[in-house]
Structures are given as structure tokens and as C-alpha cells.
UniProtKB/TrEMBL annotation:
PANTHER family: CHOLINE MONOOXYGENASE, CHLOROPLASTIC. One of its GO terms (molecular function) is oxidoreductase activity, acting on paired donors, with incorporation or reduction of molecular oxygen. Its cofactor is Fe cation. SUPFAM superfamilies: Bet v1-like, ISP domain. Pfam families: Rieske, Ring_hydroxyl_A. PROSITE patterns: RIESKE. Keywords: 2Fe-2S, Iron, Iron-sulfur, Metal-binding, Oxidoreductase. Signal peptide: none annotated. Residues 61-174 form the Rieske domain. This is Rieske domain-containing protein.
């Protein structure tokens, strides 16, 4: 059954402000809520981190990497999901598959660095090798005979163990808890449907990487998400996005319990980057959507921004209780990938990276504050923090924090 809203079956109620912006009716009821949905210790403790890794990152669909990390057949890119090493592999057939990064003989990780192989992925220990579809290829001297190609009777039983995966909008998603079959494909389609429907006017097959950067941040992953969902700070921390009236002009948006965020009806961060010589749109974008910016957290670890002519992803690896590694990528239309658009592309990506850099000191200080016992007595503001509270409530329910 589909859980995303239709026009007359909204997931949440919305209030409208006098300036016409929509506020989601989230968990916060009075003006401020001083009862923490997530305790401060959950932002610093190794135990809470482990619990979240298991009950969130190992329990459903999560962003694992970018398709452009393995552009060609034979490319193998290792990543760690919920503490488990996995390999993202581009096959001879062009398909991306994901496998547990563990040789079926003695369990050694096959590679810890991105590699390009010609035909097979080989374990360095006893030289067992695997085809790009994960099937067992070679097992030298398996029977201790010096001659002949020998191997186990049941080769299929020793294929690399697959992980359920899906590719959408240039991103690779995995689900460590799902079976690897057609059900997983259908499950992912349902997971992503609210976004594919909302963004049906965008041709994600045409996206072209404009720039990518990694940010290694000394803050808990939940603060990264909460800051992303915090529209209140924009005029104070990112003054270049426009006058206060423009940066406060944002609607809360709840597409599904796992897809929450907002919308700038008239654009925000991208505005500063727009020039007279605009980049081509990412599809057939209706006139009323040309200035609109969508901002969605695809729970738990993909933060998405979409304007008519660019798509930005800040996806992250929750690397430790107080460490998050962001992989930020900005995509434009394929037609904007050439030299003639180089100046505009750089102007756009400079602005977007600059906005993200402005948030770094905020995240460090938010993390520092979580070590204070007073952090359990902070307040969320009903008028601004409903989507933040919805995110916290989802985490709290999964892990079993507090009153949730
Ligand atoms: Fe920010």
C-alpha cells in the first residue's frame, strides 16, 4: 500500500502564515517544546551511535554512494554501510551491483580502495577471484593438485553475497535488511515514489556532475540533518541567499514520513548563482516552477536540493558518534556540461559549496553544546521546527528514545 499523500489525503495538516507560507502540523503543539525528543547523550555516545547504526542504517534503504564513482565496467568502489564493508561494482553489462566486501574463503575484504579491474575482482590472500556479477571465477590449487582448473563442486554457493541495491538520480541506494530479489526492486520503487512523482518533470537520465566535494565534519549525523531542515537560520548564517524576506519565504513540505523538507516558492540559495546567461533546465520545467527550490531529506542520509537547472545532493556517512562525512555533489543538465557553460557552472558550485561551508562552524558548536547537560533543556519552536521535530520523532521511534 502506498503511504504517500495524494492531493486530498495529506499526511499532515498545514497552517498558513499571514505571508502565505505553509507550516506543517508536526509533533510540536505549544509555542515551544522543551521536552527533548532525542536526549543530548544520543548525539555523543558510542552506544547510541551503535543503536542507530543497527536500527536505522542497517534496517532500510540508505544512500551508499554515487553512480559516477563507478563510471565504467570493472570499476569497484568500497564503502561502509552501518559498519559493514560493501562493494559497489559496475558490471560488463553496465549494471551497478552491490556485494558484501568479504571473500567467501576466509572473509578478507577484497579491496579497501577504489580499483578498476579488467574482468575479475581478486582476493589478495589466496587469489580466489569473482566475476563482476559476483559469481565465483577462480580458486587456484583448490584440491591441492598442481595441474588443472579445479574448484568447489557447488560454485554458485560461493558467489559474493549480494546486497539489495537500486540506482536513482545518480545515487546508489542499498538495503542491508532486504532480500535481493524483485521484491527489493518493488520496495525501492515504493520508497522513492513520492519523489519521482513530485519530480516527474526532471529527466535524471540527463544529469551531469558539475562538481563534488567531501566535508569531514566533527558533528553527529543528526545535527547535519537538523541543520538542513532548519530554515530559520538562513538569513543569519547565509545572508548571500537574499534579503530576509526572501530567505524566510519557505513552505514546510511532508511528502511521506521518510521524505520531509521544504520548498522555496521563489528560489533561495540558487538565486545568488543565477546569472543572465542561465544554465539549461533539467527537463521540461513549467514556468511556475522555474524559480522554485525543493529541499528534501530522504531519510536517513540523503539531503536533496532541486531547482530547475541544478540538482544538489549532500549525502553522508555517519562515521562515528561525533563524525559525519558529507559527499556533496552538484549536477546540471548534460547540455550544461561543456566549456561554454564552464563559467556559470563554477559560479553555481562556488555559491553552493560556500553555503555549506558557512554551516560548518554552526555544526561544530552545536556538537560542542550537546556535551552540556543543559542540552536536554533546549526548545523547539512550533513555527519553525516542526519538520525537525518530525525527523527527531522518526529517529526516536526507531531507536526507542525518550517519550516517542
Ligand atoms: Fe545552513
Amino acid at each position: 500500500m502506498s503511504t504517500h499523500p495524494t492531493a486530498d489525503d495529506e499526511l499532515v495538516e498545514y497552517h498558513t502564515t499571514s505571508t502565505g507560507n505553509r507550516i506543517a502540523q508536526g509533533p510540536l503543539t505549544s509555542d515551544t517544546s522543551q521536552e527533548a525528543l532525542i536526549p543530548a547523550r544520543a548525539y555523543i555516545s558510542p552506544e547510541a551511535y551503535s543503536a542507530e547504526q543497527e536500527s536505522i542504517f542497517a534496517a532500510g534503504w540508505v544512500w551508499a554512494g554515487y553512480a559516477h564513482w563507478v563510471p565504467d565496467p570493472g570499476m569497484v568502489h568500497p564503502v561502509t554501510i552501518a559498519g559493514r564493508p560493501v562493494l559497489i561494482v559496475r558490471g560488463d553489462d553496465g549494471q551497478i551491483r552491490v556485494f558484501h566486501n568479504s571473500c567467501r574463503h576466509r572473509g578478507m575484504a577484497l579491496t579497501e580502495e577504489p580499483v578498476q579491474v579488467t574482468r575479475r575482482i581478486q582476493c589478495a590472500y589466496h587469489c580466489w577471484s569473482y566475476n563482476l556479477d559476483g559469481s565465483l571465477a577462480m580458486t587456484p590449487y583448490f584440491t591441492r593438485e598442481r595441474k588443472g582448473r579445479t574448484g568447489p563442486d557447488d560454485r554458485d554457493a560461493l558467489s559474493l553475497l549480494p546486497v539489495a541495491s537500486a540506482v536513482w538520480a545518480g545515487m546508489v541506494f542499498v538495503n542491508l535488511a532486504a532480500p535481493v530479489d524483485d521484491d527489493a526492486t518493488a520496495q525501492f520503487a515504493e520508497f522513492i515514489a513520492p519523489l519521482t512523482e513530485r519530480w516527474s518533470h526532471i529527466d535524471f537520465d540527463r544529469i551531469h556532475l558539475a562538481a563534488e566535494r567531501e566535508f569531514d565534519i566533527g558533528a553527529n549525523w543528526k545535527l547535519v540533518v537538523e541543520n538542513f531542515l532548519d530554515f530559520y537560520h538562513l538569513p543569519f548564517i547565509h545572508p548571500q541567499v537574499g534579503p530576509v524576506t526572501a530567505s524566510l519565504d519557505v513552505d514546510d513540505e511532508v511528502l511521506a514520513p521518510h521524505i520531509i523538507g521544504g520548498r522555496y516558492p521563489h528560489g533561495a540559495a540558487g538565486k545568488a548563482a543565477k546569472t543572465d546567461d542561465a544554465l539549461p533546465d533539467l527537463g521540461q520545467v513549467a514556468a511556475e516552477l522555474r524559480e522554485s527550490q525543493d529541499i528534501f531529506c530522504l531519510f536517513p542520509n540523503a539531503l536533496l536540493f532541486l531547482e530547475s537547472d541544478w540538482f544538489q545532493v549532500i549525502a553522508f556517512d555517519a562515521a562515528g558518534p561525533e563524525r559525519t562525512i558529507e559527499h556533496m555533489a552538484v549536477f546540471v543538465d548534460r547540455a550544461a556540461g561543456g566549456e561554454d557553460h564552464a563559467v556559470n557552472r563554477k559560479a553555481l558550485t562556488d555559491v553552493l559549496f560556500g553555503v555549506n561551508e558557512q554551516d560548518l562552524p554552526i555544526l561544530y558548536k552545536m556538537q560542542a553544546g550537546r556535551h552540556s547537560p543543559a542540552s536536554d533543556q533546549t526548545s523547539l519552536v512550533t513555527h519553525w521546527d516542526q519538520v525537525t521535530a518530525m525527523f527527531q520523532q522518526r529517529v526516536a521511534q526507531r531507536v526507542g528514545y525518550g517519550r516517542a
